[in-house]
Amino acid sequence: MIKKTGTAPDEGYLTISNLEKYYGPYHALRDVSLSVRRGEFVCFLGPSGCGKTTLLRAIAGLDPQSSGQIWQDGRDISLLPPARRDFGIVFQSYALFPNLSVIDNVAFGLRNTGVSAKDARTQAQELLAMVGIAEHAQKYPSQLSGGQQQRVAIARALAMSPGLLLLDEPLSALDARVRVRLREELHDLQRRVGVTSIMVTHDQEEALSLADRIVVMNAGRVEQFDTPQRIYSHPANRFVAEFVGDMTLIDGQSDGQDAVRIRQQRLELGQLRKGAPTGATAIGIRPEDLVLTQSGTGPNTVTATVDAVEFSGASAVVRLHAPTLCDIPLRARLSLATLTQLQLAEGISIGAHLLPDALHVFPVHGDAA
Amino acid sequence: MSGKTPQAIRIPATGDDRAMRTMLLCVAAVLFIALIAPLYALLSRSTRDSDGVFIGLTNFQRFLGDSTLALAAWNSFFIAFLSTAITILLALGFAYGLTRSRMPGRPLFRSFAMIPLLAPSLLPAIALVFLLGEKGLARGILMGNSVYGPIGIVIGEVIFSFPQAVLILSTSLAMADQRLYDAALTLRAGPFKTFTTVTLPGIRYGLISTPLAIFVKVFTDFGVPAVIGGSYPVLATEIYKQVVAQFDFGMGAVVGIFLLIPAVLAFALQRFLQRFEVATVTAQSVPLDIRPRKTRDLACLAFCLLIAACLLVIIGFAVFGSLVTYWPYNLGLTLKNYRFGEASTAGWSLYVNSLTLAFLTATFGTALTFVGAWLIERTRGWDGAKALLQLMATLPVAVPGLVLGLSYIFFFNSPANPLHFAYGTMAILVLSSIIHFYTVPHIIATAALKQLDRDLDVVATSLKVPFHVMLRRVTLPFCMPAIVDIWGYLFVNTMTTVSAVIFLYSANTLLASIAIVQWNDSGRMTEAAAMSVSIFATSALVMGAKTLFMRRYFSRSQAWRRR
After folding, report:
1. Average of per-residue pLDDT across B342-360
2. What percentage of residues in chain A have a pLDDT greater than 90?
3. CB contact (8 A) between residue A95 and residue B13
4. Which domains does chain A have, with CATH numbers?
């Protein structure tokens, strides 16, 4: 019944190879290939229109790809209709059946698998307890808060014990506080149940805190597929560097060895940054890797003027002007203790040390790309 | 674009897909057989003589050369134009009162405006005869002019079209953004400037589409001119004469086409204009905040009271006429007019026929239109077939009842047609009524289905729930209010229609509304009034029962709609 169009790739529970998707002339997915391990939590992260939802819908079979293949658990599902694929799904809109009680929502699929009504209700009740809303079982969706509704949706998606859990921006409609709480619960729940999960999100904090690995996407392409730590500390290119976290990028020259030059300033590259590209490059530094010192001299240190101090709760961001380096403002993130200790004020002069191991060097593609 | 852009790969159909596609084909087949094929038969018949020989456009030449028909065409235009102008003026004032004033009793006034919807168009016409006819009680106000002819037709048509005009206009008037009015105020725009720059552009679409709809409705109406037209010829009554009295089917077909053309043009124009309609009311809009203003509210109240009084007088006179012993000589009250045995041997069975037809049309029509709309919304793939079904579902609104009925004669009465056996039965009346009223239920059903998040179906699919379980347990309960609305719409419209059935009844399936026309022709005014009132009372009862049912149903099984 299932056409053998190739051999199943050895590793990976879900393997996508060379996926392309066109909407008319619009190229929505460009040669997407990736492999998700069994039990892994993967986030598709990217700006709107980057193709992350398109990719999720292709995996579910809702918007079939134009070409390429998808393998799930050793079986080629590329041509299967959604009904024959094995997934549970959670939407941003919750998508609960409005006229069914919470418990009937969760039991809706079970009833059609031959499970008795009583067993279905018992199972549904257990799932509701697992997501922490057992006491609301008899209510209707409209009587619940957004966070509670999304818990029902998650319980319902898990009810059929799917091999794959697909989450399409599940937390985006919730307000900030509920969002963080449900994020933590989702994290724990997924690790406990062990279901392979894919979540689409445009919120980097969500992706960084939830995922085992993140797929960063842009304009239909996979820019980087790696662990949250690697994505943050070793962004593969300028796009990832700027999209995930905060980074100041300055044009410069790299000698391809152990140093870069920006204007007249030479900056040493740390041991971790060896092997940077040669020639015209963009050199990036994250605000937390810019260390402010009273003495304005030393290696990798420039003199800067404080333009502004922006207090943001747990930390503060200092905007600096360093004419020997660049015309755009530099940003440094400081703890409150450091802020007090340095006694910063607008207009004063200070040393800014760029940590050698925290400098990012990206080739400048220009128009050649 | 390069031609080698790869299209989406083809995903094989599941059992559910196949079942839904088969159903889609079935609904499309019904619409094809009961709408497209008969219309084709009509077009084809217009180019043939009475023996079925092709004669090109000869019938059309005869039409243009026939002075009575040419006059009828002119009269139809004149009547439709005048009635539309008066209706729009009155309805605009009434709708303004309902939506833009703080006059008391607005919900009550709204219900009053809807009264004519519950009666056949014959009822106001008959009431006019009692009121303004040769022996009418208030004929003096016509200053010697006869109510039979243009005066009576226009008054009757205005009453007949009034509810629909109020409905559309009050919808467009109610949808406005308070912020625009606040902005106008801060920019120091006077009332006139505000009206021309904010109010008028906001209701622009309603102001174009309402006259189009009313014009076509009047242009193609049979009931009013049949009762009160006298010897004043209009196309709707001429087509009937050509076919029923003169058996000139070729000419009947030509007149049918002339009735069809303005309707189709108006339909096309409306669809065309819809494209330019920009939603001025968005999710961010602030609903209108209308503050009390004494002069405006009093003026609106006076105007609406006047209109409501007119409508009540009309209905009242129909009821009064139905209770009169011997009009106009003996005004003593009696119920004998409701014993229809004297007017026709069929007696009350006429009424039972109408009730049966309305019940069957409402029941089968609701099922067909809802399932059709659901299939268009939910079938996976087959976009071409869905677009075609959508087109066929919106087309009936552009086909006048008389034209549909006539085309059924040509199509189903042809001995070569295997469906010939249906001719003259209740089945063909049910079918023609369903098709005639198809579009509005289709729109109601589509709107209700669009309220249901599409993701729900994706979830159901991921839960391996078959489509029919999803339909039964979620979609149907969710759409129940719309389904009840559709049922009521079909019941009342079928109960009151004349034009859709006048060509199709047989001796066994004679209907109450048709009997009214016949009795009126033979001078049995009081019985005709009694039957009109019976139909009116039935419609009112059904609508009342619908409201009660909905209230109880909501409180019991739709608890989920409450917060």
Report:
1. 90
2. 72
3. no
4. 14-233 (3.40.50.300), 247-363 (2.40.50.100)
Residue in chain A lying closest to B477 (CA): A99
What is the reported pLDDT for A5? Answer: 46
Q: Which residues contact B77 (CB under 8 A, 6 or more apart)?
A: B219
Closest approach of B464 to chain A, Cα-based (Å):
6
Q: Where are the beta strands (DSSP E) in chain A?
A: 14-23, 26-36, 41-45, 67-72, 75-76, 88-91, 164-168, 196-201, 213-218, 221-226, 248-255, 259-262, 265-268, 278-285, 290-293, 301-311, 315-321, 330-335, 349-354, 360-363
Average pLDDT over residues B488-510: 92
| Beta pairing partners, A319 | A308, A331
Among B16, B453, B464, select the one facing A112 at the smallest CB separation.
B464
How many angstroms separate the CA atoms of B78 and B150, rounded? Answer: 9
Cross-strand bridge partners of residue A280: A253
CB spacing of A93 vs B453 below 8 angstroms:
yes
Of A25, A112, A162, Cβ closest to residue B465: A112
Q: Is A369 exposed, middle or buried (0-12, 13-18, 19+ CB in 10 A)?
A: exposed
Q: Give me the pLDDT at residue A323, please.
A: 87
Minimal Cβ distance to B563: which of A60, A81, A142: A142
- With CA atoms as reference, the chain B residue closest to A166 would be B462
Pairs of CB atoms within 8 A across A/B: 110
Asked if the C-beta of B8 comes within 8 angstroms of chain A's C-beta atoms, the answer is yes
Q: What single-letter DSSP state applies at residue B48?
A: B
Domains and CATH numbers, chain B: 14-42+341-563 (1.10.3720.10), 66-329 (1.10.3720.10)
pLDDT tier for residue B286 given thresholds of 50, 70 and 90: confident
Q: Does B556 touch chain A (CB under 8 A)?
A: no
Quickly count: other Cβ atoms within 10 Å of residue B68's Cβ: 10
